[in-house]
Amino acid sequence: MKLSRIKDLINAEVLCNEEMLEMETVCAFGSDLMSDVLALSCKDTILITGLTNIQTIRTAEMLDIKCIIFVRNKRPDETIVELAKEKGMCILATRHTMFTTCGILYSNGLKGVDMD
């Protein structure tokens, strides 16, 4: 699924790297615990979270995650957005809860990540 489709489905705002919206992704993972995110093994994953601090960007960088969706009207500050921009990550923000965001994306064909 293209990031542009994800953006439209969840009525998200692009906070940086809008040019990446044509990128394809195959799965998503929702968590506010970065220790859980570190256990991921699926390539081309997007991260859905409400955690808007520097650890989110650093964790995504370690796993080569190219898109983060911030939920619950959470907005990272400008330093976080700038770091994501520098690291080549597309950042989206939506008013939906994590549950609703995951449900919308799953019901439209985006796979979840199974923990091994």
How does this structure look, described?
- With 116 residues, the chain is α/β, with parallel strands linked by helices.
- It has a single domain (3-110), classed as 3-Layer(aba) Sandwich (Udp-n-acetylmuramoylalanyl-d-glutamate--2,6- Diaminopimelate Ligase, Chain: A, domain 1), CATH 3.40.1390.20.
- The chain contains five helices and six strands.
- The protein has helices spanning 3-9, 34-37, 54-62, 78-86, 98-107, and strands at 13-16, 27-30, 45-49, 67-70, 90-93, 111-112.
- It has a six-stranded mixed sheet with strand order 1-5-4-3-2-6, sandwiched between helices.
- Helix 4 (78-86) links the parallel strand 4 and strand 5.
- The longest helix has 10 residues, at 98-107.
- The protein is globular, with a radius of gyration of 12 Å.
- The model has no long low-confidence stretch (mean pLDDT 92).
**Structural class by sheet pairing and helices:** alpha/beta
Number of helices: 5
What does the main sheet amount to? 6 strands, mixed
From N to C, what is the helix and strand string? HEEHEHEHEHE
| Biggest sheet: strand arrangement | 1-5-4-3-2-6
The figure for the number of domains is 1
Q: In CATH terms, what is the architecture?
A: 3-Layer(aba) Sandwich
Summarize the model shown:
With 116 residues, this protein is of the alpha/beta class.
Essential attributes:
single chain, 116 residues, alpha/beta, Udp-n-acetylmuramoylalanyl-d-glutamate--2,6- Diaminopimelate Ligase, Chain: A, domain 1, six-stranded mixed sheet, globular
